[in-house]
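Running this now, will post back.
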Amino acid sequence: MEQGKYPRVLIVNQQSISKKNATGITLKSLWDKWPSESAYEIYTDPVQEGLYRFESKCIHQTFLQRVARSDAASSVNSSVKKTANGSASNRSLKSIIRQGLVMGLDSQTVHLSKEEWDNIEQFQPEVIYTLGASVSILKLVNTISERLKIPVIIHFMDNWPEHLQWEDNPFCKSYHKSMLRYLHLCLQKSNLGIAISPIMAREYQNKFGIEFGYLMNSVDQASFLCSKANDEIRNYVYAGGLHLSRWKALKDIASSLKNNGSAQLSIYTSDQNRQMYEGEFGGLPVVFYNSVEHEKIMEVYEKANVLVHAEVDNPLLSGFFKYSISTKIPEYLSTGKPVLFFGPKSIGLFQYLQENDAAFVASTTEELNDCIQKIQKEDLRCRVVNNALKLARNNHSVQQAQKNLHSMICRSCSQR
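Update: finished.
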């Protein structure tokens, strides 16, 4: 592959890069410098929030497939969660059945029209890039790769080959078995994979027998650096969703704050999350605020004395997130504000932050109380913040991630 050349990449995913969620933000940062004429995106999720600079097409699907991924389906799912057995965190038969139907619909083959095939062939892609994590997408990627005789690069952002988020759903077993079947067909057409972290890259290189590189979630560090932190620690801030049982861990943090002083926990989240979970925080020093667009997230970070992230020790979820690192962590590390992480020791994020002494980390309420007391000490805060800034600079530079993506795609194309 000629140095400096950008291969023509066909990006195939369920959702478009333009979607304004964590995955969309991550993909936009990675692909930001890729020439628009050298990328073509197709996606299957009709819920889109604006166009990205690449040529991008939502491909044709059956009526039932469109319904399964529509706003209406998402609304039904949220309603199910709110009414499940009187608690937002419990499962219901309706939710299990709906998930089963979605998995069944996703197992259907997506057939490209003649016009869609003509557009792809006219683009003349040299490689396919995908996040996988879906039977229909893996089927589609395999079909395109076979027809055009081009390699596949799968970017694993979670541990979905081993775990999904719905292990308690009886429909999951057959769906996951089908997913693994098409994953291995795609891997037969791969000479290189991308992982979300170094430890995942090592594990998957051994597991799948092909070369793996890694791209950690990355940011432009300078754009997230806040003004000097206030020495008085009064405002702990969490910005994000309360799903995946994170509200339980945040409730533990709020209880610890109540027992250790006068600080409050400020939670910036969606109206939907407020309706579902705000009632769980009665009597605690918690204030809820409306979530903000990512373009305005610095206004939230500036108000924080401590930035908070939390996960729960849930056997149905911890395997899925075993090696992944939340999208917001590189942002937190870049702010110059102390970070508090409360979650299980078994997940890679806990180990990553602890080994680099880049955050105050706790896995039990006793450790949480200890962290909140340590955060009050300026010398400890300065040490941890300096380590966090160094870690962000060394491991989470978006400029370096973009170079690494280019290098890996070039290497894959040169081995065709």
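Residues 378-395 form the longest helix (18 residues). More later if anyone needs it.
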